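quick q for whoever's on today - can somebody do inverse folding on this one?? i tried earlier but teh output was garbage lol. tokens:
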């Protein structure tokens, strides 16, 4: 079957309820438990926008009890997840409602796993220092209500958590972490500020671009990624320019969910390993911003390997460069999309990153997230990763 690549397993058990206003049907669904831990961010927006009140009302109408955990930061930390898990256990919560963006959904997954399997969260992860023990119990069921179009975490079985003591930012994976329900309601995304709309939209884009040029692709994943890439190229600039453009928000939400399926299917590549190393050392760096910063150098490197020239030409066309004839035209298209979304001049130095850290970061990318580095068609060497970081530095 190698000629066609039509040899795969695909199973995403999450029931997705997609469309404007879908939060309003939550109360009609069978609930996966009797008492929910609602997980939100440590910021103001989930309350200020009324999303928390609306979700609590849905749970009231569904006849389930709930308590709140509102301490999750961006790039969520191991200690926060462990604290949330303790709150869930101490209050006998038997399911989790994740209400927010990628950080919230990621942290909720770690909470769900650790609530059912007490002890050090790192007992159950891989990476460099995790013990990789099997879990004794399934994680608590999760309902994911996503308020951003970025990580695709609402339809995958992983959550990214940072351990600041060991500088590990890694994915916690478990088949029981697929949300039971994903509510993808673009009306909840209208309030995301332009800059974060761009960061999140590019994260979704890179999930699909990486899957498309990675070694694990197949015609099914291609179909998801091609639609996601074309959609993001067309609608991200609109969602960035006018957050209330509900068509653009809905199309971006759709592209993000497709990119999530792409990750379930074929994973990401070294670009994500390298970015995780950057934000493992610099907690304030948003994931999407880190990816944008390294993306031109990363994809230029892959182009120079000549491992999938036609795919880069196709991606250039999907991003709107319809006259593309050579792989380098993809870089032109990528830069032009970054410019249209106001993120063409992000600087590592603005986030306190220093070139003296690059060697350690390249080592970290391989030690912590080496699995993704094997998904490039021609895996990068340590020196090549350092070179990508140097070329990305401003
Ligand atoms: Zn990502």
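ok took a stab at it. sequence:
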């Amino acid at each position: 079957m190698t000629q066609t690549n039509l040899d795969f397993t695909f199973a995403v058990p999450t029931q997705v309820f997609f469309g404007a206003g879908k939060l309003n049907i939550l109360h009609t669904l069978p609930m996966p438990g009797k008492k929910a831990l609602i997980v939100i961010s440590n910021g103001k927006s989930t309350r200020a926008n009324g999303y928390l009140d609306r979700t609590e009302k849905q749970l009231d109408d569904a006849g389930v009890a709930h308590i709140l955990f509102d301490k999750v930061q961006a790039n969520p930390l191991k200690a926060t997840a462990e604290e949330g898990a303790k709150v869930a256990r101490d209050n006998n919560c038997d399911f989790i409602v994740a209400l927010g963006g990628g950080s919230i959904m990621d942290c909720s997954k770690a909470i769900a796993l650790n609530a059912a399997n007490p002890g050090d969260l790192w007992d159950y992860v891989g990476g460099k220092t995790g013990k990789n023990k099997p879990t004794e119990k399934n994680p608590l069921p999760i309902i994911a209500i996503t308020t951003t179009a970025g990580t695709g975490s609402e339809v995958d079985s992983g959550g990214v958590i940072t351990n600041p003591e060991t500088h590990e930012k890694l994915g916690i994976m478990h088949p029981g972490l697929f949300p039971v329900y994903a509510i993808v309601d673009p009306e909840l995304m209208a309030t995301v500020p332009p800059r974060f709309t761009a960061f999140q939209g590019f994260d979704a884009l890179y999930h699909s671009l990486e899957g498309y040029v990675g070694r694990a692709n197949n015609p099914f994943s291609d179909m998801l990624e091609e639609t996601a890439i074309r959609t993001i190229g067309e609608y991200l600039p609109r969602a960035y320019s006018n957050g209330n453009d509900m068509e653009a928000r809905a199309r971006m939400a759709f592209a993000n969910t497709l990119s999530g399926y792409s990750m379930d299917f074929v994973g990401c590549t070294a670009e994500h390993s390298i970015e995780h190393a950057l934000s493992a050392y610099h907690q304030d760096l948003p994931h999407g911003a880190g990816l944008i910063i390294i993306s031109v150098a990363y994809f230029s490197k892959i182009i120079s390997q000549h491992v999938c020239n036609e795919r880069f030409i196709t991606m250039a066309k999907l991003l709107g460069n319809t006259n593309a004839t050579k792989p380098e035209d993809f870089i032109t298209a990528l830069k032009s999309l970054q410019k249209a979304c106001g993120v063409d001049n992000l600087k590592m130095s603005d986030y306190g990153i220093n070139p003296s850290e690059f060697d350690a970061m390249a080592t970290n990318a391989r030690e912590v997230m080496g699995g993704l580095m094997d998904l490039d068609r021609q895996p990068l060497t340590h020196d090549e990763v350092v070179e990508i970081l140097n070329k990305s530095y401003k």
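fwiw Residues 219-241 form the longest helix (23 residues). also The chain has a mean pLDDT of 96. so keep that in mind when u check it
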